[in-house]
Design a protein that fits this description.
Elements: H1 2-12, H2 14-18, H3 21-36, H4 43-48, H5 55-69, H6 73-85, H7 90-105, H8 109-114, H9 122-134, H10 140-147, H11 158-166, H12 172-184, H13 188-195, H14 200-214, H15 227-240, H16 242-255, H17 260-276, H18 281-287, H19 291-294, H20 298-310, H21 314-322, H22 326-329, H23 332-344, H24 348-358, H25 364-373, H26 388-396, H27 398-408, H28 412-423, H29 428-440, H30 444-453, H31 460-463, H32 469-478, H33 483-494, H34 514-524, H35 537-554, H36 559-568, H37 570-575, H38 584-589, H39 594-613, H40 621-624
Helix pairs in contact: 3-5, 5-6, 5-7, 6-7, 9-11, 12-13, 12-14, 13-14, 14-15, 15-16, 15-17, 16-17, 17-18, 17-20, 20-21, 21-23, 23-24, 23-25, 24-25, 26-29, 27-28, 29-30, 32-35, 33-39, 34-35, 35-36, 36-39
């Protein structure tokens, strides 16, 4: 099998191997020349690059440089022709985005309109509506749609709003309407700005909305308040003082004459907060909500069940799950808890009838079902079957060769854009073959994501690779960690992308925040790493495994708490501890943050597969995860 894969790899990467180091050097030089405006000096190189997969990147860079120096109608025609000739080329899309503001500045309205997509940014949508205005059209509704949002809009919308004003469509009622949207959306600065444009009596109304929203305790004596503003302020009060908000709700409903929808929003919010705070009042509040309004509310229905699970009110768990719509009731989480509740109430035969098929699934709840039956886990490994026709379609797409060549050049971000273009409209067989190619390229994140898009879940080679295993074993051993656990965290955090950065600033395979990395390094007595060093796999794994070991030490080796802490921070986990010892599966099911709850479940499930992949003994979840205690002695580790 391994020899076959190696042979297949040689075939699939033939395009990239056909490019010589000399061609790549020529491409780099030509691309730099295009960006600097000296492409005319590279004619000999361009002739040698005519068949090179990335030749059009040079053309796009040259057009972009000309655009930056000053556009004209001839250049517009050239750019438009290039974009239309290469609709799936990422540099062509980048060129289009930079060209549109130039068209707007120069009043090329029809060309701008012709080249604006329906799913463009708000800025480009505003430019397109303004183009329609300039062309003598009357885009009243499109302009109002841009105005009627509860947030500040880009500067490109200003001419559209000025036109609305000139058309007499921006009277006090319209301004007040947007001010109300803004305050309900928490955009208080915009609300003040709009209020200043209103006559005194309406300005006073916006000031009332702001007073109650910014200081929600003012709700207790507010009268004649807009119902939706009251709901917004009520939610802010509930976050500060949930009991006070719950007591105030019936008073507000009567005093402000709130409608059924507004009362539902308030009751739902109170019920959810009580449930996420693990308070017993949650069940009583869910019982006050009209079931018809909850019928399709997946989030609220889930928390009603979790609240009953937390309180171990098993008959209520059964009742709530049986009321779920079929699309939700078939979710593995609720199948498990239905069976668990049946077992807890002595209905073993009914419970086992649900546990049995669930136990054959490779998933967190499937493993829990197997534990309930005392069975081995089913990993259901099925290598991806080959589809020669689908593979040929993938190979024929020029984006594949471009992605391959960009990776060879170390231009991974650009390669990712090409991969997105390659797979955007693929059918499932082609996606599966593309995933195989990415795996053979050792581009594991793309392989995993693309195979998931193909809806094929059982090729464990592709879905659970084991790169960096030497570093994982070495630093895992240094910190007393199971390598399967480390790989599970890496897969959950970064999908094996060593250079990835999160929006919050976390870096690398184990997604370390630079501040955490510095603190860990000081504890270890090693040099403080710069942020760039966290993209080096060995450095990231060394620091990440130490931090993970600290989390385990913080919670007396409780792997569920350590995993949750790695995601959400140990201080939050301390606030979520139960009042008395609790079954860990109940605690995990009631982690308040959806992201952290899913993170823990995925990591525990991934760890099981990695134990198999590393030829370790598979440790059952009911053995691996300890009871959650009400308190833990802090050993003075990172927090």
């Amino acid at each position: 099998m391994r020899l076959f894969l190696i042979a297949g790899l040689c075939l699939l990467t033939a395009t990239a191997q056909a490019a010589t180091p000399a061609q790549r050097s020529l491409f780099r030089d030509a691309l730099a020349a295009a960006q600097q405006g000296t492409l005319g000096n590279e004619q000999a190189a361009l002739r040698q690059l005519q068949t090179y997969p990335l030749y059009n990147y040079i053309s796009a860079a040259d057009l972009r440089r000309q655009l930056d120096r000053g556009a004209n109608s001839a250049l517009d025609d050239e750019i438009e022709g290039f974009i239309r000739a290469h609709p799936d080329l990422p540099p062509a899309e980048s060129l289009r985005r930079n060209w549109l503001p130039s068209l707007a500045r120069r009043g090329r309205w029809q060309t701008l309109l012709d080249n604006t997509d329906d799913d463009d940014s708000t800025t480009n949508s505003c430019r397109a509506v303004n183009a329609r205005i300039k062309l003598g059209m009357n885009p009243r509704q499109a302009a109002l749609d841009l105005w009627r949002v509860g947030r500040s809009q880009p500067d490109a919308c200003d001419p559209v709003f000025a036109w609305l004003d000139q058309q007499g469509l921006m009277g006090p009622d319209e301004i007040l309407r947007r001010a109300r949207l803004a305050v309900v959306n928490g955009q208080y600065g915009l609300t003040r700005y709009l209020g200043r444009q209103l006559p005194d009596n309406l300005k006073a109304l916006t000031e009332q909305w702001l007073a109650v929203s910014e200081t929600p305790t003012n709700l207790s004596y507010s009268r004649n308040l807009d119902g939706d503003v009251a709901v917004h302020a009520f939610k802010r009060l509930a976050l500060r003082d949930l009991d006070a908000a719950a007591d105030l709700l019936p008073v507000l409903a009567q005093r402000l004459n709130l409608d059924a929808t507004q009362q539902f929003e308030m009751k739902r919010y109170v019920a959810l907060l009580y449930a996420q705070n693990h308070e017993s009042q949650a069940l009583a509040w869910f019982a006050r909500i009209d079931p018809a309004r909850m019928a399709d509310d997946e989030h609220a229905l889930g928390w009603e069940i979790r609240a009953a699970i937390y309180q171990q009110r098993w008959p209520l768990v059964i009742e709530a799950i049986r009321k779920l719509p079929p699309s939700l009731a078939n979710d593995e989480e609720w199948r498990y808890w239905h069976a668990r509740a049946l077992a807890e109430t002595g209905n073993d035969s009914q419970a086992n009838a649900i546990f049995e098929p669930l136990s054959r699934e490779r998933s967190y709840h499937g493993y829990l079902a197997a534990d309930a039956l005392g069975r081995d886990y089913s990993l259901n490994e099925r290598p991806l079957p080959r589809d020669a026709a689908a593979a040929a379609r993938v190979q024929a797409n020029p984006a594949l060769a471009r992605a391959d060549e960009l990776r060879a050049l170390g231009m991974d971000h650009a390669a990712g854009l090409e991969w997105n273009a390659l797979t955007r409209d693929m059918d499932k067989p082609a996606l599966a073959e593309a995933a195989r190619i990415a795996y053979q390229w050792q581009w594991y994140s793309r392989a995993i994501i693309t195979l998931a898009k193909a809806d094929y879940w059982d090729d464990l080679d592709i879905r659970y690779p084991t790169p960096y295993s030497d570093a994982v074993r070495r630093f895992g051993d240094d910190n007393g960690l199971d390598p399967a656990y480390v790989l599970a965290i890496i897969r959950t955090e970064s999908l094996f992308q060593p250079q990835v950065r999160s929006s919050a600033g976390a870096v690398g395979l184990m997604q370390l925040m630079p501040g955490t990395a510095r603190l860990v390094a000081r504890q270890m007595g090693t040099a403080t790493p710069p942020s760039s060093a966290l993209g080096v796999p060995e450095i990231n794994i060394q620091l990440g495994t130490r931090y993970l070991a600290d989390m385990l030490a913080r919670w007396n080796d409780n792997i569920a708490l350590a995993t949750a802490s790695y995601n959400a921070g140990p201080n939050r986990i301390a606030r979520w501890l139960p009042a008395k010892p609790m079954d860990p599966t109940i605690w995990i099911a009631n982690i308040p943050y959806t992201e952290t709850r899913g993170y823990v479940q995925r990591a525990m499930s991934h760890m099981t597969v990695f134990q198999q992949r590393l030829d370790e003994d598979i440790v059952p979840l009911d053995t691996r995860i300890d009871t959650i205690q009400s308190g833990y002695a802090d050993p003075g580790s990172l927090n």
